[in-house]
Structures are given as C-alpha cells and as structure tokens.
Specification:
Elements (H helix, E strand, L loop, with lengths): L1 E5 L9 H13 L2 E8 L3 H8 L6 E6 L8 H14 L3 E7 L2 H14 L4 E4 L1 E4 L2 E6 L4 E6 L5 E5 L15 E5 L28 E5 L6 H15 L2 E4 L1 H5 L20 E5 L5 H7 L4 E6 L6 H4 L2 E4 L2 H11 L1
Parallel strand pairs: 1-2, 1-4, 2-3, 3-10, 4-9, 5-9, 11-12, 11-13, 13-14, 14-15
Antiparallel strand pairs: 6-7, 7-8
Helix pairs in contact: 3-4, 5-9
Bound molecules: flavin-adenine dinucleotide.
C-alpha cells in the first residue's frame, strides 16, 4: 500500500497544507510518496524529503508544470499511478490547488473522489462533513485507487524536518497544450496567510464600508499579529478582497483565536471557522447566532468597542 501525495508549493517552499496532508496519510498507513511538479522545483523536492513520514519524493521538473495547470498535472499523476500498481491512494489538500486538480485525476482513474476528509478510520473508510458541516458522512470506498482531498484543519501538520526520503527525478509527460496560464494576480500579504495564521480578526457587513473595515480592523490585527478575514457579505459588498473570505465557499480555518467583528454567524460562515480553538464575537445584537458558538461574546457597538480594545492591548 503506497500513498501518493501531490505537493502544493510555490516553487520555493512547500505549503503547510502539504504537511497536514502527510499527517492524514500517516493515519492511513503504508509508504508515503510525495510528487513535486513544477518548473525549477528541485529545491522544493529537497524540502519535501525532510518532512517526517515521507519515504520517497518524485520530482517532475519541466516548464509546462510551472503553472500547475490541472490538465498536465493530472496526466502526470495518472501516469505514475498506472505505472506502479502499489499506489492505492492519491491525496491532495482540499485547498483551491487540490480542488482544481483532484477531480480530473479521479475521473481519469474512474474513482469516486472523497472530498474534504476530516478523519481516517481505516485505509478504506473516511469521514467528511456535509450540509455546511451540520452532518458527518462515514464513507467506505471500494475503489482500487482512492482519491481523497484532505481538510487541512482536521490534521496537525507533520514536522517539516526529521525525515530523509529518497529523491527521484521523473521524466514527466509532454505538454498537453489544453490550457495555458494567461496571467496571475497575486495579492501580496503583509500579514500571515489566512489558512496558516494562529490568530484571525474577521469582519462582516456590520463594518458598513471598505474604509471602515480597514480603519477599524487593521489596528486590532496589527496589535495581535493576526491575519484578516471576512464574511461573504463583506466580500460581496467590496469591503475586503475575495481571498479574505472565510466559510463554506471561502477558506476553512482553525486558528488558536478567531475574533468575529460585526458578523452574524450564518451557518455558511460557521462552516469555515467553528473549529477555531477560541472564538470571540463582537456584535451589537445579543440574539446574533455567532454568540451560540463564541467562547467570549461582547454585545456592543464595534465602532466603540474595537478601538477601546486596541488601546487596552
Ligand atoms: P449579516 O448577516 O448582515 O450580519 C451583520 C452583523 O453585524 C449583524 O449581526 C449585526 O447585528 C452586526 N452589526 C451591524 N452593525 C454593527 C455595529 N455597529 N456593531 C456591532 N455589530 C454590528 N457567508 C460567509 O461568510 N462565508 C461563506 O463562505 C458563505 N458561503 C455561502 C454559500 C452559500 C451557498 C450561501 C447561500 C451563502 C453563503 N454565505 C457565506 C452567506 C451567508 O449566508 C451570510 O449571508 C453571510 O455570512 C452574512 O455575513 P455577515 O455576518 O457579515 O452579515
């Protein structure tokens, strides 16, 4: 039994989501191989080789893997799986990266993908939430090769050091030419990345405007060393960029501390943050559902209470 993990990386470093995925693979058992595909990605392969639990790293280094396009990447993964019958599982994090490439792999392998796995019961039985986290399904897969996306917040990352896997170069496949990257707009974050942050300050429609969102929340985030997040209503209203969105259709986060400011607590928002270790809610409506899951709640006007909190910190 061998598990193939598709590494998520930026060409320089391995994303923590890959370390969470390796942790899930350890619970399945068997050998863990990590596939690093990219352009000029040899250094990432070396980094992956030191992660705890990894036995082999496969590096496919070619220009046409640089953009991580799903078509070329899926073909590469499927070629590896077909060439080596010991592969029983293909795993990737349930991030935008994994969600982009895994369904194509599952379809090519004629497997039923199991998405957003939150617990491993055995090599063929897994748990995943559905109905925005209100129910948990226990699924047994009879597929020859099981294709799983892993909810990263459900598995603590393995250590990035301590391992000594062998690193092997792959010839890779040809460029299928089915798609090409026209451009990429990367938001340069001066704050911690949302999914990796230990503290998140998140704002909702209660902030009322984009300038107020930043003027009220940024000083608090600065004081706490926090990442900024937002509800979908705040994103849709243009208060915050798209990649700030937390929730069912945004990012799933589980920081040590989540401060929800002017957020009502709709189930779609809770689906993305309810596993946070400590939840603080500031809302002027004492009946707001967010208070039902908050560890600490402050019924107050945020425009008064947040500046007061900032000056008290
Ligand atoms: P509101 O519900 O309008 O709440 C604003 C809150 O601010 C209120 O509770 C109010 O009391 C408080 N407030 C106002 N003024 C002040 C003040 N001065 N001081 C203190 N408090 C104040 N939502 C997400 O967040 N993430 C998702 O991923 C997501 N996915 C969705 C997917 C689907 C399919 C659907 C249908 C919906 C989704 N939603 C998602 C939307 C979700 O249903 C809610 O509409 C949204 O979360 C509401 O955002 P909000 O809490 O900021 O706004």
């Amino acid at each position: 039994m061998t598990i193939l993990i598709i590494a998520e990386h930026d060409g320089v470093a391995l994303k923590t989501a890959t370390l969470n995925t390796i942790a899930a693979a350890e619970k399945i058992g068997g050998e863990i191989h990590v596939l690093v595909a990219g352009s000029d990605c040899g250094a990432v392969g070396q980094v992956a080789a030191t992660a705890t639990g990894v036995t082999r790293v496969l590096v496919a280094d070619a220009d046409h893997y640089g953009a991580q396009l799903a078509e070329n990447l899926a073909a590469l993964v499927v070629d590896q799986v077909r060439a080596d019958s010991s592969f029983t599982h293909v795993l990737a994090p349930a991030t935008a990266f994994g969600k982009n490439v895994l369904p194509r792999i599952a379809a090519l392998l004629d497997s039923s993908q199991i998405s957003d796995v939150t617990a491993i019961e055995s090599p063929d039985t897994f748990e995943r939430p559905f109905y925005a986290g209100n129910a948990v399904a226990r699924l047994k897969s009879s597929d020859k090769v099981k294709v799983l996306s892993i909810r990263t917040t459900a598995f603590d990352p393995v250590s990035a050091t301590g391992g000594s896997a062998t690193v092997q170069s792959l010839a890779g496949g040809a460029d299928l030419g089915l798609s090409q990257l026209a451009g990429r707009e990367v938001v340069k974050l001066e704050r911690p990345e949302l999914t990796a942050a230990t503290i998140i300050v998140s704002g909702g429609r209660g902030l009322g405007a984009a300038d107020k969102f930043h003027a009220v929340l940024e000083p608090l985030a600065d004081k706490l060393g926090a990442a900024l997040g937002a509800s979908r209503a705040a994103v849709d209203a243009g208060y915050a960029p798209n990649d700030y969105q937390v929730g069912q259709t945004g990012k799933i986060v589980a920081p040590q501390l989540y401060v929800a400011v002017g957020i009502s607590g709709a189930i779609q928002h809770l689906a993305g943050m309810k596993d946070s270790k400590v939840i603080v809610a500031i809302n002027k409506d004492a009946e707001a559902p967010i208070f039902q899951i908050a560890d600490y709640g402050l019924v107050a006007d945020l425009f008064v209470s947040v500046p007061e909190l900032v000056s008290a910190l």
